[in-house]
Design goal:
Blueprint lengths: L1 H5 L12 H8 L6 H15 L7 H7 L6 H7 L11 H11 L4 H26 L8 E6 L2 E6 L15 H15 L7 E3 L1 E2 L2 H9 L5 E3 L1 H7 L10 H11 L6 E4 L8 H6 L5 E5 L1 E2 L2 E2 L2 H14 L4 E5 L9 H13 L4 E3 L6 H8 L4 E4 L5 H6 L2 E5 L3 H19 L9 H7 L10
Parallel strand pairs: 3-13, 4-5, 5-6, 6-7, 7-10, 10-11, 11-12, 12-13
Antiparallel strand pairs: 1-2, 8-9
């Protein structure tokens, strides 16, 4: 029945020659018939092949750089049932210039992206499964009706959102960034394939990372040698289907320039390390790499891993590297092996700090200033051990440890777990 209701026309809006009234009267969102077909084609063309990671980038791609303050004024007044403010009218006029359909399409796209991505990002951050746009309005014989979109978050039928994939990518990046600004640290489990990631998401984890050891070892490749790039990239792209933010462990780029690698990857975050097979990269070299990467994908959360503790380097150099990396654009720092409370507190003052899971609880680490706790390769290593223990139990005639059922795994990897349904 919902599909039939969504095929009804949208309510008409009064025409206008300026401000929000003009905008509403000339965008695809509130059009029907030939106007809708023409404006939808124009709107779709404007975002065709647009690959961005943030609303700022989208505004620039649409020819409206620096416009988000104006868009924030327009968005609460955009729907026909909402009251238009003088500030919203003035914002439209500042952006409009020429009052033609293409200008209206550019502004309308950004207004809808601003509203939808902010709402969707907040739901991703909190784990709220409800759709970002809960209802849409249609014109029926007895008047305007509201159609709930619980099963169709971005709408179906003639008014299906043409920018769903783009909006989802931006919203995931926004949500992932916000997860690093909460009182309680983000507990980030690290997966090595789609099934492990889907199972972790189903268990209630709001974001998923990948593990370089797990990905490499699962393919018979040594970790840390820069040899599992194809496998790591393939997994990152596969996990883009999950209805939650994903951050990819890219080591130091696997011999590629991370700036080129990250821009088209579609993930909400990446992890880049200064460790190399032969030791540590120089701080200058790593800072330049981080700056190029950040410039190529500003919306992606760039986590700078500092491998000094693995090598017994003094805290002073760790801190100096952290400062350089943050100045180069890193959004967070990750210091594996960091366990001393005073050291944690000291580095947590510089940027959102990521540590590996340890004997302290998330609450205790949060009190020290930690914003993210990764499991690293722990889950993969535990899965290997559990696999061997189960096989040994079968061979020796002992009790077999409990496992997921066949149907449960089938459900985990079905299309129902993926973003086009969530």
């Amino acid at each position: 029945m919902t599909e039939e209701l969504l095929s009804l026309p949208v309510p008409s809006v009064p025409t206008g020659d300026r401000g929000v009234a003009w905008l509403r009267a000339h965008v695809v969102r509130f059009s029907n018939g030939a106007d809708h077909a023409r404006r939808r084609a124009l709107t779709t063309k404007l975002i065709e092949n647009v690959e961005v990671t943030s609303l700022d980038e989208l505004a620039t791609a649409l020819g409206l750089p620096g416009s988000l303050d104006d868009i924030a004024q327009i968005a609460p007044c955009y729907q026909p049932h909402e009251t238009v403010t003088d500030a919203a009218d003035a914002a439209v006029e500042r952006l409009a210039g020429a009052h033609d359909e293409e200008t209206a399409a550019r502004i309308g796209l950004l207004v809808q992206a601003w509203a939808a991505t902010h709402a969707f990002a907040e739901r991703l951050r909190t784990g709220d499964p409800s759709p970002a746009v809960p209802v849409t309005r249609r014109a029926a014989e007895h008047g305007v009706i509201e159609v709930r979109l619980d099963a169709h978050p971005f709408g179906h039928g003639p008014h299906a959102c043409p920018g769903r994939a783009l909006a989802t990518r931006i919203a995931k990046a926004m949500a992932f960034r916000a997860m690093h600004a909460q009182d309680e640290p983000l507990v980030l489990p690290n997966a090595w394939d789609f099934a492990s990631a889907a199972a972790l998401h189903a268990a209630g984890f709001r974001a998923i990372g990948t593990t370089s050891l797990g990905v490499a070892a699962a393919h018979g490749i040594e970790d840390g040698a820069g040899l599992a790039g194809d496998q790591a990239v393939r997994l990152a792209r596969l996990l883009d289907d999950l209805p939650c933010p994903v951050t990819a462990d890219l080591e130091s780029g696997f011999g590629q320039d991370p700036a080129e690698l990250v821009a088209g990857l579609g993930v909400a975050g990446v992890n880049l390390e200064d460790g190399r097979p032969h030791g540590l990269a120089s701080p200058e070299e790593q800072a330049a790499l981080l700056r190029r990467t950040k410039d190529s994908a500003p919306g992606v959360f760039l986590n700078a891993r500092i491998d000094t503790h693995w090598l017994g380097v003094a805290l002073g150099e760790t801190e100096e590297r952290a400062r350089r990396y943050v100045d180069a654009g890193a959004d967070g720092i990750f210091v594996p092996g960091l366990t001393e409370p005073r050291d944690i507190e000291r580095l947590a003052r510089l940027a959102p700090l990521n540590v590996l899971a340890q004997h302290r609880t998330p609450k205790e680490l949060g009190d020290l200033g930690v914003k993210r706790i990764s499991t690293g390769s722990l889950l993969f290593r535990a899965a290997l051990r559990h696999t061997v223990a189960t096989a040994v139990a079968v061979r020796d005639g002992n009790a077999v440890p409990e496992a997921f059922g066949y149907e449960h795994v089938q459900d985990l990897v079905s299309r129902g777990t993926r973003s086009d349904a969530g």
